[in-house]
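User: Could you go from structure to sequence for me? I need the amino acid at each position, not a summary. Structure tokens:
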């Protein structure tokens, strides 16, 4: 309990988590599903100017795209607040990732089994910067057309990287993805360090 007159929001520890992945994998949807506040979205309509630039194969019904970031918040307790930053998925907006990753505790890489190749850049980004991450397979309309092991093999994931199946629209699935990331971060922290 804080001292009289203290504001718990001022004393809460803030944690930053990125939600990343390729274009159209469900990042905006995941942030919206788990955020306790109406998330901030920087969605814009796709236009004719993006024809030939944005690959809509497999996501033909997509009409909008994130051009900067998505932002959401989860208050875990009076002492802990989690801020979620959804990254833009299109290559022309990747320059923002370098700023968004600053101070991030970890990340979720959301993938779509219909287009696994759009996930490689996200995985490479976090691996090259030593940022811990988990992979969440967004099972659109609850379709599970690949096993977790098939996805792990296709993405060439390190065995220590957790992989979970989810529906980005479901709050409980989103919560489970974030809990998997927290468990992964805690396990890394408690693992003995190499003396080599």
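Assistant: Here is the amino acid at each position, in order:
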């Amino acid at each position: 309990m804080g001292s009289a007159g203290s504001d718990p929001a001022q004393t809460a520890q803030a944690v930053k988590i990125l939600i990343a992945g390729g274009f159209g994998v469900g990042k905006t949807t995941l942030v919206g599903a788990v955020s306790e506040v109406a998330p901030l979205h920087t969605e814009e309509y796709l236009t004719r100017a993006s024809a030939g630039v944005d690959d809509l194969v497999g996501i033909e019904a997509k009409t909008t795209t994130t051009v900067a970031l998505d932002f959401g918040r989860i208050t875990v307790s009076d002492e802990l607040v989690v801020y979620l930053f959804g990254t833009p998925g299109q290559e022309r907006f990747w320059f923002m990732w370098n700023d968004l990753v600053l101070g991030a505790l970890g990340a979720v890489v959301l993938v779509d089994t219909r287009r696994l190749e759009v996930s490689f850049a996200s995985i490479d980004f976090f691996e090259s910067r030593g940022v811990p991450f988990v992979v969440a397979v967004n099972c659109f309309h609850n379709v599970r057309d690949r096993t977790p092991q098939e996805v792990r093999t296709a993405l060439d994931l390190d065995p220590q990287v957790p992989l979970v199946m989810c529906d980005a629209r479901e709050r409980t699935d989103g919560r489970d993805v974030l809990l998997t990331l927290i468990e992964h971060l805690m396990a890394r922290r408690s693992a003995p360090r190499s003396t080599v």
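One structural detail worth keeping in mind: The longest strand covers residues 64-77.
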